[in-house]
């Protein structure tokens, strides 16, 4: 019998009207702005009304470094949320929205998998409620207004060689990384170099995801540095007078989206910065709202714990004043074997030695999470090819690291397959051992913050940055930005900047190629190694297999 695809399973879902899902969290119908029957935005008025509620318990789901074998972080986030509800807990899920870039590029869908999914799957992976389009529009409105200001006389005396605000689009398009704009004569403005990033790398995305409300959003948008004058003084978004109109474009996008799992449990899906080039967490407003209306909130951070979890704990928690009570690190036997040197085509054969050889990658992540003072449990996301001996090898290794591993079968069995994990997480939270603290203080110099992450999380020996970059960091410190956290843009595939270096490497260096100040979002971005803020499509993009069938249904999303 053929195994059903994720999209087949999602299409068979017995979805309930979104008003019933909202009622589970005490959200009245009048405070839901419906988008069809199965998704809605939660009103700003409702969010304000629950601010005095006691916060629930926050659980972060992260993972080992991703491999082509697959890990299933979002799947485990959904499975754990369903599992908590199955054992009688009032739980909600908070995940990020999917970007069209990877959807049509490498990844396909991003809403979980098997019987641990969030629905409606097709809409979530495509246009959803239009949030990303709003962010793209707001970002590019500012771009247009900068060039328009220069065209009509440049009263702010912007140095056109020092316009730092790039354009964005929500698609992988390497041809647009570096462009020349305003060609074609006097009517089109002053030619200059420019370029595009992917929307999920936009500072507007980061701002939307870190803002508490519309007032905070507008202030942060105004704080964006868009260019510099010849005397090197900054020009802000508010100087261009774009912050008000950008806020108008983002008003509805600021409201969190409510959807449901296959088991009709509530899920907030809002915001979507990548973790390899941005801060990798869903919105603060969605997470904080969920904490006010649920007893347990399960959220995820992108890619491996060296990226998403580090940024969740050093940036999001610091900025939002929240802290997790437990961290779940997702691993698979297949990924352990890949880290142990087994080729993807040979993963089906039992190889306990390769599992053991690959486990140090998992061990490194366990050590790293413990540095933040939060207890960690490992979720072994089960694949049908896993053998008992291989699973036992992972469990024994995790025990030797002072943690515990739980076998999870939520992909195949939904909440029933995640009950053991749910019980373990509740046990950890009830133990009260979490003493969260960020890895570095606010007042540490910016370069030292980068060194702290490089040495303590990546286990690099040194950070390589030329004098120009170090001088730039010092200038930002002198301008009052020294207390900001740092957001590392780095390959997700390795602790190092070499994507092919699996396992738990040591003795490597971290080259910082460029630094960018995100004054509105409130962090400094360090671009490391060869990472690109505008990805390209692979040789065979997922888009080639995505189509409508004879019934008008989407096929090829997975």
Please provide a written account of the structure:
By secondary structure, this protein is α/β, with parallel strands linked by helices. It has three domains: 6-127 and 256-431, 3-Layer(aba) Sandwich (Rossmann fold); 132-250, Domain 2, N(10)-formyltetrahydrofolate synthetase, CATH 3.30.1510.10; 446-528, Formyltetrahydrofolate synthetase, domain 3 (Roll), CATH 3.10.410. 36% of the residues lie in helices and 19% in strands. The strands form six sheets. Strands 1, 2, 3, 4, 5, 6, 14, 15, 16, 17, 18 and 19 form a twelve-stranded mixed beta sheet that branches. It has a four-stranded mixed beta sheet with strand order 20-22-23-21. The protein has a three-stranded antiparallel beta sheet with strand order 7-12-13.
If you consult CATH, what is the topology of the largest domain? Rossmann fold
Range of helix content: 25-40%
**Count of distinct strands:** 25
Strand proportion, as a percent range, falls in: 15-25%
How big is the Rg?
23 Å
**Could you name the ranges where pLDDT drops below 50 across 5 or more consecutive residues?**
none
Tell me the span between the first and last alpha carbons: 19 Å
């Amino acid at each position: 019998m053929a195994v059903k695809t994720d999209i087949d399973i999602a299409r068979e879902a017995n979805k309930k009207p979104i008003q019933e899902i909202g009622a589970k969290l005490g959200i009245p119908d009048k405070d839901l702005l419906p988008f069809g029957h199965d998704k809605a935005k939660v009103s700003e008025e409702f969010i304000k009304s629950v601010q005095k509620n006691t916060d629930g318990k926050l659980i972060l789901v992260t993972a080992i470094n991703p491999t082509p074998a697959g890990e299933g972080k979002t799947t485990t986030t959904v499975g754990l949320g369903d599992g908590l509800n199955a054992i009688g807990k009032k739980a909600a899920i908070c995940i990020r929205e999917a970007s069209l870039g990877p959807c049509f590029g490498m990844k396909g869908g991003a809403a979980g998998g098997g019987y641990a999914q969030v629905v409606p799957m097709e809409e979530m992976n495509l246009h959803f409620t239009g949030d990303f389009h709003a962010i793209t529009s707001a970002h590019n409105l500012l771009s247009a207004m900068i060039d328009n200001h220069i065209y009509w006389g440049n009263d702010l005396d912007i140095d056109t060689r020092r316009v730092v605000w790039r354009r964005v689009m929500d698609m992988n398009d390497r041809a647009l990384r570096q462009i020349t704009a305003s060609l074609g004569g006097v009517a089109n403005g002053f030619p200059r170099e420019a370029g595009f990033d992917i929307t999920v790398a936009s500072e507007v995305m980061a701002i939307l995801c870190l803002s508490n409300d519309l007032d905070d959003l507008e202030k942060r948008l105004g704080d964006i540095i868009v260019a510099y004058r010849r005397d090197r003084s900054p020009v802000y978004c508010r100087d261009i007078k774009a912050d008000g109109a950008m806020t108008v474009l983002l008003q509805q996008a600021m409201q969190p989206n409510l959807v449901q799992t296959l088991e009709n449990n509530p899920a907030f899906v809002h915001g979507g910065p990548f973790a390899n080039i941005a801060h990798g967490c869903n919105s603060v407003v969605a997470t904080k709202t969920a904490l006010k209306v649920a007893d347990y909130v399960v959220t995820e951070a992108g890619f491996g714990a060296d990226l998403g979890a580090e940024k969740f704990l050093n940036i999001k928690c610091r900025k939002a004043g929240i802290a997790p009570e437990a961290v779940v690190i997702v691993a698979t036997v297949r990924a352990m074997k890949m880290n142990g040197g087994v080729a993807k085509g040979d993963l089906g054969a039992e190889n306990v030695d390769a599992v053991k050889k690959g486990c140090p990658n998992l061990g490194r992540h366990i050590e790293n999470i413990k540095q933040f003072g939060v207890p960690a449990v490992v979720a072994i996301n089960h694949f049908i090819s896993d053998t008992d001996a291989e699973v036992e090898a992972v469990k024994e290794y995790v025990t030797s690291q002072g943690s515990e591993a739980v076998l999870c079968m939520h992909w195949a069995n939904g909440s029933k397959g995640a009950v053991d994990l749910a019980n373990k997480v509740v046990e950890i939270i009830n133990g009260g051992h979490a003493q969260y603290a960020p890895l570095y203080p606010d007042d540490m110099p910016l370069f030292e913050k980068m060194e702290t992450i490089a040495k303590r999380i990546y286990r690099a020996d040194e950070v390589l940055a030329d004098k120009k970059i170090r001088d730039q960091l010092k200038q930002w410190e002198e301008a009052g930005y020294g207390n900001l956290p740092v957001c590392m843009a780095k390959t997700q595939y390795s602790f190092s900047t070499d994507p092919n270096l699996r396992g738990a490497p040591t003795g490597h260096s971290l080259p910082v190629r460029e630094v960018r100040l995100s004054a509105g979002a409130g962090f400094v971005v360090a671009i490391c190694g060869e990472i690109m803020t505008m990805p390209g499509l692979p040789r065979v993009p997922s888009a080639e297999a995505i189509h409508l069938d004879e019934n008008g249904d989407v096929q090829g999303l997975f």
